[in-house]
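Bench notes, afternoon.
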Amino acid sequence: MAERLTDALVRKALPPARGQTFIWGADVRGFGLRVTSGGARSFVIDYRAKGRARRFTLGSYPDWSVQAARLAAKDLKREVDLGGDPMGDRHNERAAPTLQDLWDRCELEHLPHKAPRSQADERSIWEKIILPRLGKLKLSDIDHAAVDALHRDITTIRGTPVRANRTVETLRKAFNLAIRWNWCERNPASGVRRNPEEPPSAFGARCAY
Protein backbone atom coordinates (compact mmCIF):
# COMPACT_ATOMS: atom_id res chain seq x y z
CA MET A 1 0.00 0.00 0.00
CA ALA A 2 1.35 3.42 -0.94
CA GLU A 3 2.05 5.95 1.83
CA ARG A 4 3.67 9.35 2.00
CA LEU A 5 7.43 8.93 2.34
CA THR A 6 9.09 10.82 5.19
CA ASP A 7 12.65 10.90 6.47
CA ALA A 8 11.55 9.10 9.62
CA LEU A 9 9.92 6.32 7.61
CA VAL A 10 13.03 5.97 5.42
CA ARG A 11 15.36 5.76 8.44
CA LYS A 12 13.24 3.12 10.17
CA ALA A 13 12.54 0.94 7.10
CA LEU A 14 13.64 -2.62 7.89
CA PRO A 15 15.85 -4.41 5.34
CA PRO A 16 14.45 -7.64 3.87
CA ALA A 17 16.03 -10.97 4.71
CA ARG A 18 17.23 -11.22 1.12
CA GLY A 19 17.01 -9.30 -2.12
CA GLN A 20 15.27 -5.93 -1.97
CA THR A 21 11.96 -4.45 -0.97
CA PHE A 22 10.08 -1.30 -2.00
CA ILE A 23 7.98 1.24 -0.16
CA TRP A 24 5.93 3.25 -2.63
CA GLY A 25 5.04 6.90 -2.10
CA ALA A 26 1.45 8.07 -2.31
CA ASP A 27 1.99 11.54 -3.76
CA VAL A 28 3.92 10.78 -6.97
CA ARG A 29 2.93 7.75 -8.97
CA GLY A 30 5.83 5.32 -9.31
CA PHE A 31 7.98 7.10 -6.71
CA GLY A 32 9.36 4.87 -3.99
CA LEU A 33 12.13 3.79 -1.66
CA ARG A 34 14.22 0.70 -2.38
CA VAL A 35 15.81 -1.07 0.60
CA THR A 36 18.29 -3.89 0.07
CA SER A 37 19.11 -6.77 2.42
CA GLY A 38 22.39 -4.99 3.17
CA GLY A 39 20.52 -1.92 4.44
CA ALA A 40 21.22 0.37 1.46
CA ARG A 41 18.42 2.82 0.73
CA SER A 42 17.75 4.62 -2.55
CA PHE A 43 14.90 6.47 -4.19
CA VAL A 44 13.46 5.24 -7.48
CA ILE A 45 10.66 6.05 -9.85
CA ASP A 46 8.92 3.55 -12.12
CA TYR A 47 7.38 4.69 -15.39
CA ARG A 48 6.51 3.49 -18.87
CA ALA A 49 7.93 4.93 -22.10
CA LYS A 50 7.09 3.67 -25.57
CA GLY A 51 5.41 0.64 -24.04
CA ARG A 52 8.45 -0.34 -21.93
CA ALA A 53 8.56 -0.44 -18.15
CA ARG A 54 11.46 1.57 -16.74
CA ARG A 55 12.95 2.01 -13.26
CA PHE A 56 15.11 5.09 -12.75
CA THR A 57 17.29 5.46 -9.65
CA LEU A 58 17.16 9.03 -8.42
CA GLY A 59 19.75 8.83 -5.66
CA SER A 60 20.71 7.16 -2.41
CA TYR A 61 19.70 8.04 1.13
CA PRO A 62 20.93 10.00 3.10
CA ASP A 63 22.81 11.77 0.27
CA TRP A 64 19.35 12.57 -1.08
CA SER A 65 16.62 13.73 1.27
CA VAL A 66 13.04 12.61 0.77
CA GLN A 67 12.05 16.12 -0.28
CA ALA A 68 14.82 16.38 -2.91
CA ALA A 69 13.99 12.94 -4.29
CA ARG A 70 10.26 13.76 -4.43
CA LEU A 71 10.92 16.97 -6.37
CA ALA A 72 13.21 15.11 -8.78
CA ALA A 73 10.54 12.44 -9.24
CA LYS A 74 7.96 15.09 -10.11
CA ASP A 75 10.33 16.67 -12.66
CA LEU A 76 11.07 13.30 -14.22
CA LYS A 77 7.37 12.42 -14.33
CA ARG A 78 6.67 15.65 -16.25
CA GLU A 79 9.46 14.77 -18.69
CA VAL A 80 7.92 11.34 -19.26
CA ASP A 81 4.46 12.84 -19.74
CA LEU A 82 5.95 14.99 -22.52
CA GLY A 83 7.29 11.92 -24.31
CA GLY A 84 10.74 11.66 -22.73
CA ASP A 85 12.54 8.52 -21.60
CA PRO A 86 15.27 9.41 -19.06
CA MET A 87 16.34 5.81 -18.47
CA GLY A 88 16.57 5.16 -22.20
CA ASP A 89 18.60 8.34 -22.60
CA ARG A 90 20.98 7.15 -19.88
CA HIS A 91 21.42 3.79 -21.59
CA ASN A 92 22.09 5.47 -24.92
CA GLU A 93 24.63 7.81 -23.35
CA ARG A 94 26.51 4.93 -21.73
CA ALA A 95 26.55 2.99 -25.01
CA ALA A 96 27.60 5.97 -27.14
CA PRO A 97 31.03 5.45 -28.74
CA THR A 98 34.08 7.39 -27.61
CA LEU A 99 36.88 8.66 -29.82
CA GLN A 100 38.94 5.70 -28.56
CA ASP A 101 36.23 3.38 -29.92
CA LEU A 102 36.40 5.18 -33.26
CA TRP A 103 40.17 4.76 -33.45
CA ASP A 104 39.91 1.06 -32.53
CA ARG A 105 37.57 0.47 -35.45
CA CYS A 106 39.57 2.66 -37.83
CA GLU A 107 42.74 0.81 -36.89
CA LEU A 108 41.07 -2.53 -37.56
CA GLU A 109 39.09 -1.76 -40.72
CA HIS A 110 40.58 1.35 -42.33
CA LEU A 111 44.28 1.56 -41.51
CA PRO A 112 45.37 -1.75 -43.14
CA HIS A 113 44.43 -0.35 -46.57
CA LYS A 114 47.12 2.33 -46.33
CA ALA A 115 50.82 2.08 -47.16
CA PRO A 116 53.04 0.99 -44.24
CA ARG A 117 54.60 4.44 -43.86
CA SER A 118 51.19 6.11 -43.80
CA GLN A 119 49.98 3.56 -41.27
CA ALA A 120 52.88 4.31 -38.94
CA ASP A 121 52.40 8.07 -39.26
CA GLU A 122 48.66 7.94 -38.62
CA ARG A 123 49.08 5.59 -35.66
CA SER A 124 51.63 8.00 -34.19
CA ILE A 125 49.22 10.92 -34.54
CA TRP A 126 46.47 9.01 -32.79
CA GLU A 127 48.53 7.53 -29.98
CA LYS A 128 50.74 10.54 -29.22
CA ILE A 129 48.42 13.47 -29.91
CA ILE A 130 44.73 12.70 -30.36
CA LEU A 131 43.95 9.97 -27.84
CA PRO A 132 45.74 11.49 -24.83
CA ARG A 133 43.68 14.65 -25.33
CA LEU A 134 40.29 13.46 -26.59
CA GLY A 135 40.24 9.67 -26.45
CA LYS A 136 37.87 9.31 -23.49
CA LEU A 137 35.28 11.75 -24.85
CA LYS A 138 32.06 10.62 -26.49
CA LEU A 139 31.93 11.51 -30.18
CA SER A 140 28.86 13.62 -29.49
CA ASP A 141 30.81 15.66 -26.92
CA ILE A 142 33.60 16.67 -29.32
CA ASP A 143 32.78 19.96 -31.00
CA HIS A 144 34.51 22.41 -33.33
CA ALA A 145 35.94 24.31 -30.36
CA ALA A 146 37.70 21.18 -29.07
CA VAL A 147 39.29 20.48 -32.45
CA ASP A 148 40.24 24.14 -32.91
CA ALA A 149 41.90 24.12 -29.49
CA LEU A 150 43.83 20.94 -30.28
CA HIS A 151 45.01 22.41 -33.58
CA ARG A 152 46.04 25.63 -31.87
CA ASP A 153 47.96 23.85 -29.08
CA ILE A 154 49.87 21.62 -31.47
CA THR A 155 50.78 24.72 -33.45
CA THR A 156 51.84 26.93 -30.55
CA ILE A 157 52.96 24.59 -27.76
CA ARG A 158 54.58 21.88 -29.85
CA GLY A 159 55.63 24.34 -32.53
CA THR A 160 54.63 21.99 -35.35
CA PRO A 161 52.05 23.78 -37.53
CA VAL A 162 52.19 21.20 -40.32
CA ARG A 163 51.65 18.40 -37.81
CA ALA A 164 48.66 20.32 -36.49
CA ASN A 165 47.16 20.32 -39.99
CA ARG A 166 47.80 16.58 -40.39
CA THR A 167 46.13 15.89 -37.05
CA VAL A 168 42.98 17.77 -38.03
CA GLU A 169 42.89 16.02 -41.39
CA THR A 170 43.22 12.65 -39.64
CA LEU A 171 40.32 13.54 -37.36
CA ARG A 172 38.22 14.80 -40.27
CA LYS A 173 38.58 11.53 -42.17
CA ALA A 174 37.86 9.48 -39.04
CA PHE A 175 34.67 11.43 -38.31
CA ASN A 176 33.56 10.96 -41.92
CA LEU A 177 33.80 7.23 -41.31
CA ALA A 178 31.90 7.62 -38.05
CA ILE A 179 29.09 9.38 -39.90
CA ARG A 180 29.03 6.57 -42.47
CA TRP A 181 28.81 4.04 -39.62
CA ASN A 182 25.95 6.01 -38.01
CA TRP A 183 28.04 6.70 -34.92
CA CYS A 184 27.52 10.46 -35.13
CA GLU A 185 25.77 13.03 -37.32
CA ARG A 186 28.32 15.83 -37.69
CA ASN A 187 32.02 16.28 -38.30
CA PRO A 188 33.65 18.66 -35.78
CA ALA A 189 36.94 18.59 -37.71
CA SER A 190 35.42 20.07 -40.86
CA GLY A 191 36.04 23.74 -41.55
CA VAL A 192 38.99 24.12 -39.18
CA ARG A 193 41.27 26.93 -40.35
CA ARG A 194 44.58 25.33 -41.32
CA ASN A 195 48.05 26.70 -40.90
CA PRO A 196 49.69 27.93 -44.13
CA GLU A 197 52.15 25.48 -45.62
CA GLU A 198 54.92 26.24 -48.07
CA PRO A 199 54.42 24.51 -51.43
CA PRO A 200 57.22 22.11 -52.42
CA SER A 201 59.98 23.67 -54.51
CA ALA A 202 60.33 22.84 -58.18
CA PHE A 203 63.53 20.95 -57.42
CA GLY A 204 61.80 19.00 -54.67
CA ALA A 205 58.91 18.22 -56.96
CA ARG A 206 61.31 16.88 -59.64
CA CYS A 207 63.13 14.78 -57.08
CA ALA A 208 59.88 13.27 -55.87
CA TYR A 209 59.41 11.41 -59.14
